[in-house]
Specification:
10 helices; mainly alpha
Amino acid sequence: MAVSARISKSTIQGLLIAAGLGAATIAAWWALYQQQVAMNSLPMDRMWMPPTGTWRWSLTDFGLTASMWLIMMLAMMLPVVAPMTMLIVRIDRGRRAETRINLPTFLLGYFVLWVGFGIIATLLQWQFHGLRWLTPMMDSRSSMVSGSILIMSGLYQFTPWKTACLSHCRAPMGFLLSHGRPGWRGGLRLGLHHGLYCVGCCWAEMLVMFAVGIMNVLWMGLITLAILAERYVPSAGESTRKLIGFGLIAWGCVQWL
């Protein structure tokens, strides 16, 4: 009875964590959708838009842009980190509390890296607006710039860095056995380590948003699906990686032409 009660309790805990991840993902996507609807429906005088000149940006503009990128990172990367999170829950099932990986600090470490990426993306957007490469609605003004971003992102798919980071992300069990340590420090290190590889794997695909429209929710969804496919589709990950690369390069060449 004690064993079955313990198993039942751990199973319920896993379901609650899965439900929490799902709810957070839905909330983030809903927030992005509402932002896009507001941009398309509100009158221009009631709508916040990033200023064109770099010198015109206030702290409020930086804050709103950074918060937009933060929500985007949550929406796109929560589905990506969910399998690793649930694997940690499954491995820790039945372990004593002092030998478990601390899940909250793992997620904290993971998203600290993506918050850093969001800050870099905010600074890039600031410069893009200053160079008038983006419209006030955050769409690309220049087919040459869009084509260059797409070609660069496509070429990165074939680099050794992409292959190494993707190989790491495809083998979560081996990663956990090699780097998993108990306690909050172990969870934080694990999250930072995994987040570093994840950013290294996905940063170029994220930059595609500058070419297709930063607030284009449809393209956010397609990029998220592409990232999930190249990681988790059995026996098709390599072909998916190459297909994404060739597709981005071809699309970029069309933009140039």
